[in-house]
Amino acid sequence: MRGAVAVTSTPGEFELLEGADLLATYRFNTMTAEHHFCGNCGIYTHHKRRSNPNQLGVNVACLEGVSPFDFREIKVYDGSRHPADNADHKTYLAGTLTFTPAV
């Protein structure tokens, strides 16, 4: 999910309105997480989380009426150190992205 702003949902609250026939899915490592993306253009759409398979991360750029530019600050987490890989289930922050609109 690097490079995308995501919000959390659950499978029961998530409804794919169009493009299901174009979705491609990949899994790796523990095979728990399911990463979905458009097989036509390649954009990441959503994923089932490894840390909580009952949650989905959804790319806000794929939501009607929402833009990544609606968020002034975005926390960026260290994707190479997964919470499930350490005893404390610690999440590591890599930094914060800030968006300042032009005048």
TrEMBL record:
InterPro entries: CENP-V-like, CENP-V/GFA, Mss4-like_sf
Keywords linked to the UniProt accession: Metal-binding, Zinc
Domain CENP-V/GFA: 1-85
Entry annotated with the keyword Flavoprotein: no
Family assignment from sequence similarity: Belongs to the Gfa family.
Stated name of the protein: GFA family protein
Species of the source: Sphingomonas caseinilyticus
Lineage of the species this protein comes from: Bacteria, Pseudomonadati, Pseudomonadota, Alphaproteobacteria, Sphingomonadales
